[in-house]
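Each letter names a residue; the fold follows as tokens. Both lines appear below:
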Amino acid sequence: MVQVNAETREVAVKVVYYGPALSGKTTNLQALFQKIDPKVRGRLMTLDTKDDRTLFFDMMPVFFRTQAGVKVKLKLYTVPGQVMHESTRRIVLQGTDAVVFVADSRRSEAASTLAYWNNMLKNLEANGLDYRTLPIVIQLNKRDLEDARGDGELGDLRAIIQPPIVPAVAIRGEGVVETLHALLQLCYRTLDRSVGLESKWRISEREFLDKVFAHVDVRGTGISPAGGPPR
């Protein structure tokens, strides 16, 4: 879970993008990488395998410093989607603070998507994480395709828990920033309850989100830049 170092006044938050192969996890991170100011983003590292890619993305590793002098590190990961990488997915989920489940909207992929959703819930439990309280957002990706399901057709994914749903076309960068914003808002509230971000570390929700998204291109998202009106 969240790594807090009182001596160095550092807080590290881990976010994992989970979902079937080719659902758009890699595309999400690549799109975010392009939308984040190069001065504050870490490098995007790709570990290639023969059949898939897993990514590690370290966003704002040093430059996110709050008014109270706390350094916040936000680390974004994806998991490999291929079935054979089951053990890797379980390991990557260790200690995660929040999860984006990238769902392929196509009806033809509904069974595979549900299988990966249930797999994610099982792997969270295996890591001692309670998916009923963990911040989770479903990104309904590939909404531009003719075979795409609507928000009301996701009863299979929302039978146990009812996380927020964000529509997206990640390959065009649509919904990518909104997904991260929705997740980090949930993440802040959960971490505030567990480690006292506001009471002990003097980090308000507004400052937390503003500090992240002040360095992200939010044009066309409806997300307000720090201290300004929505764009």
Q: What stands out?
A: Confidence is low (pLDDT under 50) at residues 57-62. Residues 3-213 form a domain with the Rossmann fold fold (CATH 3.40.50.300). Residues 18 and 101 are 5 Å apart (CA to CA).
